[in-house]
């Protein structure tokens, strides 16, 4: 009995050894693949321990660690391919993978070049145009064959003020995202100021104040924004394209908290935040002089 058991174990060990050494058999390939995986995990663990113990410059050492880690992964993939395919098939597969990656890179290269051609030939935007694309707002300061650069505006600000950062965007975005241009047809945009008043407030008086403040600003546009009257005439010729009224317009809407009064006015695209601040200061000061005008928020504070 003992002799038969020993013979069985010896045959099993011989079979396992044959499977590992003969990578041509299915079971042998599985065994070698498992051993390669274990070896990779062991090398990864050892590499991590070495870097933890000898790390001096964390940023530099982490970059080196990631590079070596990716090299180990690549070696593992190549080794497994060699195990499961013969040498020629493995070589051809690696070459095909390389060509696939290269074609993807060339594809992006070609699309970016095509985007650059359309930008400079069709004038989707020019240097110093203010645009918004893919949620990023800024002024274009550079257009290159692969990317264009904008000086970022707003982001964490409510106002459209420079953040101090520049953003590089691939030219292919003009085929994938909507491009909002502030200056392609006209240098003016329409802004809106609104307040919520109590239902007991004198709504007509509030609208009159807002319209008067906005009207005085609009009347001074020709002298404050343009050096020559002909400039304003050229710009205003584009307004009908946007159904834009150069004169301020007041609107009223209802809300559970009260009555919303609005004024819509035209402003030079670079002056939006500055002009809004100026107009709101004048409107609020005028409201404070009127006892019949009460902001709904103030009423809520009193009730609390």
Largest sheet: 5 strands, antiparallel
- Unreliable residue stretches: 299-304
Count of individual helical segments: 10
C-alpha geometry = elongated
How much is the radius of gyration in Å?
Answer: 35 Å
- Please give the order of strands in the largest beta sheet: 4-3-2-1-5
In percent, how helical is the residue content? 55-70%
The total number of structural domains is 3
Describe this structure in words.
- The chain has 304 residues and is an alpha+beta fold.
- The protein folds into 3 domains: 1-121, no CATH class; 129-181; 188-289, Alpha-Beta Plaits, CATH 3.30.70.
- Helix content is 56%, strand content 19%.
- It has 10 helices and 8 strands.
- A 5-stranded antiparallel beta sheet has the order 4-3-2-1-5, covered by helices on one side.
- Helix 3 (58-84) packs across helix 4 (87-122).
- The longest helix is centred in the middle third of the chain and has 36 residues, at 87-122.
- It is elongated.
- It starts with a helix and ends with a helix.
- 13% of the residues are buried.
- Residues 299-304 have low confidence and may be disordered.
Quick rundown:
This protein is an alpha+beta fold. The chain contains 10 helices and 8 strands.
Q: Could you outline the blueprint of secondary structure elements for this entry?
A:
Layout: H1 2-21, H2 26-54, H3 58-84, H4 87-122, E1 130-133, E2 136-143, E3 147-153, E4 162-170, H5 173-176, E5 179-181, E6 188-197, H6 203-219, H7 221-224, H8 229-236, E7 249-255, E8 258-268, H9 272-288, H10 296-303
Antiparallel strand pairs: 1-2, 1-5, 2-3, 3-4, 6-8, 7-8
Helix pairs in contact: 1-2, 2-3, 3-4, 6-9
């Amino acid at each position: 009995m003992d002799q038969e058991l020993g013979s069985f174990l010896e045959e099993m060990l011989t079979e396992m050894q044959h499977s590992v050494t003969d990578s041509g058999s299915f079971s042998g390939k599985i065994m070698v693949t498992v051993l390669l995986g274990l070896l990779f995990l062991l090398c990864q663990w050892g590499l991590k321990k070495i870097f933890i113990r000898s790390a001096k410059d964390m940023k530099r050492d982490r970059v080196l660690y990631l590079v070596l880690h990716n090299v180990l992964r690549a070696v593992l993939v190549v080794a497994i391919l060699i195990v499961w395919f013969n040498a020629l098939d493995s070589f051809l597969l690696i070459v095909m993978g390389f060509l696939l990656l290269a074609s993807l890179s060339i594809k992006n290269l070609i699309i970016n070049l095509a985007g650059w051609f359309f930008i400079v030939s069709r004038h989707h935007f020019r240097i110093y145009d203010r645009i918004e694309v893919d949620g990023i707002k800024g002024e274009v300061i550079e257009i290159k064959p692969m990317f264009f650069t904008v000086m970022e505006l707003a982001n964490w600000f409510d106002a459209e003020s420079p953040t101090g950062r520049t953003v590089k965007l691939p030219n292919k975005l003009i085929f994938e995202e909507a491009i909002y241009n502030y200056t392609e047809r006209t240098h003016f945009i329409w802004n809106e100021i609104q307040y919520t008043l109590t239902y007991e407030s004198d709504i007509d008086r509030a609208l009159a104040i807002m319209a008067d403040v906005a009207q005085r600003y609009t009347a001074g546009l020709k002298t404050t924004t343009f050096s020559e009257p002909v400039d304003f005439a050229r710009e205003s010729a584009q307004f009908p394209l946007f159904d834009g009224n150069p004169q301020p317009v007041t609107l009223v809407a209802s809300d559970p908290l009260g009555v919303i009064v609005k004024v819509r006015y035209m402003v030079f695209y670079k002056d939006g935040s500055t002009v809004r601040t100026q107009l709101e200061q004048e409107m609020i000061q005028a409201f404070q002089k009127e006892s019949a005008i009460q902001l709904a928020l103030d009423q809520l504070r009193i009730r609390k």
